[in-house]
Amino acid sequence: MKVQALLQANSERLKALYGGEIPLARYESLAEIFRGKFGREPEAFVSAPGRTEVIGNHTDHNLGRVLAGAVNLDTLSCVAAREDMRVILYSEGYEAPFELDLEDLEVRAEERETTYALIRGVAARLSQLGYRIGGFEACVTSTVFKGSGLSSSAAFEVLVVAIFDSLFNGWTIDPKLNARISQYAENVYFGKPSGLMDQMASAVGGLVMIDFLPKEAEVEAVKYDFAKKGYVLCVVTAGGDHGDLTAEYAAMPIEMKAVARALGREVLAEVTEEELLEALPRLKNAVPDRAILRAFHFVDETRRTVQAVEALKRDDLQAFLAVEKASGESSWKLLQNLYVPGRDNQEIPLALEMSRRILGEKGAWRMHGGGFAGTILAFVPISMFEQYRERMDSVFGAGATVPLSIRPEGAVCIRE
Asked: Nearest CA to 400 among 237, 230, 235, 276?
């Protein structure tokens, strides 16, 4: 594989993927690592993007709506097929490779919450659906760092589906199916009860509104260039430890679904605000108060998602920013996924309050992703961005503030 020539032939596409400059050295270095590890030329580069949740905090698991986008940071692999069923995958930051045999596709308890589980889970689901699988060799690097709030796990899952697709299935797997296969691997094999938003945004690409209520999630592309309107979309890694928070994350969908069941439904997407209000006397004795507040967040947030998209369609950026701030307030007051119980350090609320005081009426800020730790999302006027970044980084560390661009494609394969 002549990497430089391959990238030059795909230069316009790559510029769009990465928001300007092609990371030529990154591709060449990965190909060189592959040659050193496996003693042969790679067949293809496969890339899957991280994602940003623009609005729709904790709506996907109750089949609401979300506005999300693929971003210019990605998980990138250099790959080649094997003739047997062994997978050998070297990942940056790990000295030893991940090795497994796909002759065995059963769930393994000892692999829960590991890379092995994700690879085996993807392969198992592809096989169940009638797609071809096989062994492969890969070297992987990522700018979607763990804890970045841009869903490194979903990017990796979508990447693995795309590797099997590119090497064995002729690039025939629909992006929405890629997302569902990825979610299956995370839910069943990895053991994390996630919704579908992260995988769908990464697999489909672009800025998209996703309605999860229909049996086949409806995905609507939304075209908008924030930079042309004078704003930077960025995330700030406030920090905090996600460890021991599994119960806190799991409680949100569980409590929301408990409210839905108390009203004779399966998920809150089937419940209206009026029904919630009318049922309050009964709900007060059936579920915890926090569950009711979280249910109100859900119905409001799903409505806000539609309002945000409508504002972008009519090019009313100020209305969009107002909806973004309302989303952040709701996560803080109703969803209650900012403060970590029993911890003195509250990084997420501090980052949001700093944003409010720095930006005033000139931008928007909100919780980003699961909550309790990790990142916030901000829309910052270009004229204020350097000041904003300097002040946020002075508190949360150099490089905490990361500007993003929306990537127009989801998972991609680049080969000769």
From this structure: 237
**Confidence (pTM):** 0.91
Both 328 and 411 in one domain: the answer is no
Rounded Cα distance between 101 and 123, Å, is 11
Mean pLDDT of the chain: 95
Q: What is the pLDDT of residue 193?
A: 78
> Is 28 within 8 Å of 3 (Cβ atoms)?
yes
**Residue 6: both structure tokens together:** 């391959």
* DSSP-based three-state secondary structure for 248: helix
* Residues 175, 254 share a domain: no
Name the residue among 252, 259, 257, 267 with its Cα closest to residue 283.
259
Sign of torsion, CA 359 392 73 156?
Answer: negative
Same domain, 325 and 362: yes
Per-residue model confidence as pLDDT tens digits over 384-414: 999 999 999 999 999 999 999 999 999 999 9
354 and 234, same domain (yes or no):
yes
| Contact (CB, 8 A) for 256 and 298 | yes
Asked if residues 143 and 156 have their Cβ atoms less than 8 Å apart, the reply is: no
**Does residue 236 share a domain with residue 196?**
no
CATH number assigned to the domain comprising residue 202: 3.30.230.10
Domain extent, residue 282, equals 227-404
What does the buried/exposed string (b/e) look like for 170-198 if buried means 16 or more CB atoms within 10 Å of the residue's CB? Answer: eeebebbbbbbbbbbbbeebbbbebbbbb
Work out the percent of the chain whose per-residue pLDDT is above 90.
87
The angle at the Cα of 294, spanning 289 to 298, to the nearest 5 degrees, equals 150
Contacts of 5 (CB under 8 A, 6+ apart): none
Count of domains for the chain: 2
Residue 136's H or E segment, with its range, is strand 136-142
241 — pLDDT class (breaks 50, 70, 90): low
Which two structure tokens, joined as six digits, stand for 303?
A: 């409505």
**The pLDDT of residue 24 is above 80:** yes
Q: Quick check: is 214 in a domain?
A: no
What does the angle CA 302 – CA 155 – CA 91 come to, to the nearest 5 degrees?
Answer: 155
Same domain, 202 and 256: no
**Does residue 371 carry a pLDDT above 90?**
no
